[in-house]
Amino acid sequence: MPERQLQQQLQDLRNQLAEDPPLSDEDKAALIELMSEIEVQLARELASAPDASLVDGVNLAVERFEVSHPTLAGSLRSILQTLANMGI
Prior knowledge:
Blueprint: H1 2-18, H2 25-43, H3 52-65, H4 70-85
Helix pairs in contact: 1-2, 1-4, 2-3, 3-4
């Protein structure tokens, strides 16, 4: 169940990016890379081989977008919470 929730949260984040918020190309690329890393980790079955650097990356992204893009930061916080619930 948490994997499905995480997939939905990633899709929500993709939808937010598709709405074309005023992000620099560098910020968009960083978010896309972060989402890719999360999906790779999911494919490796999160519970069996957790990657702590993944959580660090999400935390950094939350801090990066908290002031300028609070909606994106909120989505990232939800992803972070789901990862925590999964034991990551």
